[in-house]
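Page 37, continued from 36.
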């Protein structure tokens, strides 16, 4: 088992090596979470499963991590004016019901010994599907959706609404209707359905639901990309908090995991959120899509290794998950630094 490879004498999960791993991993996923409005928990939960933590602990600790990270990132997006509180408030009801349904399902699957396998298979399908969608958008759309950020001086009503969102807005006109930031008018029922489905995923997989909800806000509801990112994080504060409480009641939150992860992500989330106002992510979102695809492969390899009792395959899956996250996080940081340097040089040239 992979845990036996990482376990020092009597210090597994609490020793300096594991603490350093969790802090570093938290820093990386914090950057991703702050920048994309997703990218944190869908890496943490599978990693914990590969480290042989029980499914309820992996899911509950993943949600607790998401809650803390979302609070940090939401504060930054609030400062940037990228949070639609009306949209977030509407989504909370559907999300709450979905989380409870997912939580009950996890404990039932755990009782019959199927939780690890079902959750891992669900991750492979979801990560692969969303990763393929984001990658295709990055290769062919040239912007206008996905996880793109434009410079901060672009008005919200200048963002192009995807065709599928326009179709939904024109087709589903069931009252009550609501107008959102960016002059988007949509049925409350569309928002509620999106919220329930992503809440179900949150409770079942231990994720904030962002890697599904954020694209859904763009492609199903039609809100501008920066608002989708900021509002998703705001909504995750509630879904993650509720999920953490419910799982904590059943002993599913391990503070020895959550605290070091949050310690690292506190800085990373602020950096990632700040980068959204600087970086045009046309060139980065293809890496994000690739990270999701690699994550799907990694979880599949890890699950096969666990089934066969092959610790090498389990370790390979864990390395792929963490490695993919590190590559994308450094791509964001590198692009941010280059953009800031170019802006500084242009300012100096104008002054001269």
């Amino acid at each position: 088992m992979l845990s036996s490879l990482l376990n020092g004498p009597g210090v597994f999960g609490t020793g300096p090596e594991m603490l350093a791993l969790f802090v570093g991993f938290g820093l990386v996923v914090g950057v991703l979470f702050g920048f994309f409005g997703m990218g944190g928990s869908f890496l943490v939960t599978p990693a914990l499963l590969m480290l042989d933590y029980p499914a309820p602990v992996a899911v509950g600790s993943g949600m607790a991590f998401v809650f803390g990270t979302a609070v940090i990132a939401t504060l930054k997006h609030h400062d940037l004016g990228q949070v639609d509180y009306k949209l977030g408030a509407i989504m909370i009801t559907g999300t709450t019901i979905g989380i409870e349904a997912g939580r009950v399902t996890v404990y039932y699957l755990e009782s019959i010994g199927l939780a690890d396998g079902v959750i891992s298979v669900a991750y492979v399908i979801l990560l692969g599907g969303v990763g393929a969608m984001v990658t295709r958008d990055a290769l062919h759309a040239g912007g206008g959706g996905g996880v793109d950020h434009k410079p901060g001086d672009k008005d919200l009503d200048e963002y192009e609404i995807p065709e599928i969102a326009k179709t939904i807005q024109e087709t589903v006109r069931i009252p009550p209707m609501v107008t959102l930031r960016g002059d988007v008018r949509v049925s409350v029922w569309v928002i509620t359905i999106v919220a329930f489905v992503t809440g179900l995923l949150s409770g079942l997989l231990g994720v904030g639901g962002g890697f599904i909800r954020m694209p859904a806000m763009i492609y199903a509801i039609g809100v501008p990309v920066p608002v989708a990112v900021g509002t998703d994080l705001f909504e995750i504060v509630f879904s993650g908090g509720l999920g953490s409480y419910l799982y904590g009641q059943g002993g599913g939150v391990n503070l020895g995991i959550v605290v070091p992860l949050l310690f690292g992500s506190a800085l990373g989330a602020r950096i990632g959120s700040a980068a959204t106002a600087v970086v045009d992510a046309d060139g980065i979102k293809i890496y994000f899509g690739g990270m999701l695809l690699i994550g799907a492969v990694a979880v599949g390899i890890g699950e096969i290794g666990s089934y066969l009792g092959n610790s090498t395959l389990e370790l390979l899956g864990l390395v792929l998950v963490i490695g993919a996250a590190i590559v994308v996080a450094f791509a964001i940081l590198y692009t941010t630094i280059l953009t800031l340097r170019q802006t500084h040089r242009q300012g100096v040239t104008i002054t001269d």
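The two ends are 63 Å apart (CA to CA). Flag for discussion at group meeting. Confidence is low (pLDDT under 50) at residues 4-13, 142-153.
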